[in-house]
Amino acid sequence: IFRHVHLVHHRSINPSPWAAYSFHPIEALVQAGIYPIVVFGIPAHPLALSVFLIYMIVRNVQGHLGFELFPTWFVKIPILNWHTTTVHHNLHHEKSNCNYGLYFTWCDVLFGTAYKNYTQHFKEITSRKKQDITIMLFFMILPFTNIIAQTTPEGLWMTYREDTGDPLSQISIEKNAKGELEGTIVKIILAPWEGEDPVCSRCRGDRKGKKVISMTFLWDFEKKDGEWQGGKILDPADGKIYNSKLWLEDKKTLKVRGYAGPMDVFYRTQTWHLQEQDKDEHPETGIWKTIDDATGHPRSLVETSLKNNKLQAKILKIYPHPQEGNNAVCERCDGERKGAKIAGMKILWGFVYSTDNWQKGSILDPGNGKIYSSSLWLEDKDTLKVRGYWGVLYRTQTWKRVKNHE
User: Fold this and answer.
1) What whole-number distance in Å separates Cα of residue 173 and Cα of residue 228?
2) For FRET with 289, which of 78, 272, 403, 404 sits at 20 to 30 Å CA-CA?
3) DSSP state of 19
């Protein structure tokens, strides 16, 4: 239900007041449906209903405000801290699996879903306000200085599927000779039935039938008022070109908006994240194509990354056998993995670097749902060896690096 309905609301990871009523139509009907049930089913004074509606609207906006109104001491007062704060609900949007209460903290405390570091996080956010405001006033006094560093969206960005949130493509944004921004598609992560090297069959002109990878699909963006405006964006799925603008929400988050309709009254905004894999200390990070040690055929695309100096990996895409279907799940897994989609699942974790290889890790075999102790090492810069152990026995797989141009 979350993926198909409430995810629309949760696309606002760092929400603004507009997110308070950004819902899927089904959820909007359910939310609004409570009111007529109360009106016709429960004896209630009109003033009580009005007070509730006003309180609900104010608290809903405050929960999605993106700015904390309450002072640092608020969470220290027992008669007040049962009331949620903007930070409290912001953590819910960021983490998705905690702080479910919009108005009160009681149920989260009762059912163990309260974010464990909420109080410390709240204090950290509220304690830095004075410093932020001081800095803001300083720059207001010096409006014509060049102290603020100029930032641009140049770099390698990851885009995501709007329905599932899974990685979709990597986009390289650079400045051309005129100083305008241009974006090129360097990699696409497609479902098995979508092919490996798609062409833009619905494009027009000289783009028609051309490969999507290496295609320029952002162009003519110029800097104005802190944003890059006046640009065009191509949607390779339908071949249409839209007016567009983009801006940096922070140094690692890019917002890309495309407009449609008369006078560009309608728009859709995507969130892209900066890719910094090349900055990792170890070359084992990246995207790899796993090779079946029995058939020699590709089985999946896996992305390895570092977290807290430990190596981990998740499956980006699988190449299933015909009998496995196009949306395979881990039927033999235990716990929360049971029945979960294999694409997007973490299969490696806990690897610690020692001398010339990664050791003491665990690897999941989605085929049988079992977890094995594991080690891995680079055979050469583009070949990764992954070994799983079962007692004194072991099996080794070969993974091949997937480069940007591939």
Assistant:
1) 12
2) 272
3) G
- DSSP code per residue over 275-337: --GGGSSSTT-EEEEEE-TTT--EEEEEEEEEETTEEEEEEEEE---GGG-SS-B-TT--GGG
- Residue 79 CA to residue 72 CA, distance in Å, equals 15
Rounded Cα distance between 48 and 394, Å, is: 69
Measured distance CA(270)–CA(227) in Å, rounded:
15
CA-angle at 392, arms to 329 and 291, nearest 5°: 40
CA-to-CA dists, residue 133 to 48, 75, 129, angstroms: 39, 22, 6
Residue 192 CA to residue 300 CA, distance in Å, equals 10
The identity of residue 382, as a single letter, is D
**In 10 A of CB 76, how many CB atoms?**
11
Determine the Cα–Cα distance for residues 107 and 111; give it in Å rounded to an integer: 6
The Cα 10–Cα 349 span in angstroms is: 27
CA–CA separation, 28 and 34 (whole Å) = 10
Instruction: Find out whether 346 and 314 touch, Cβ atoms under 8 Å.
Output: yes
In whole angstroms, give the CA distance from residue 170 to residue 173: 10
Please give the Cα distance from 380 to 195 (Å, whole number). Answer: 29
Residues 6+ apart with CB under 8 A from 6: 24, 27
What is the pTM (predicted TM-score) of this model?
0.41
- The pLDDT mean for the chain works out to 83
Give 313's Cβ-side CA count (13 Å radius): 29
Closest Cα partner for 244 from 227, 230, 226, 234? 230
Return the axis-axis angle of helices 118-127 and 129-141, rounded to nearest 10°. 30
Digit-coded pLDDT (tens) for 312-342: 999 888 887 665 566 678 888 988 888 888 8
DSSP letter (8 states) at residue 180 = -
Percent of the chain with pLDDT over 90: 21
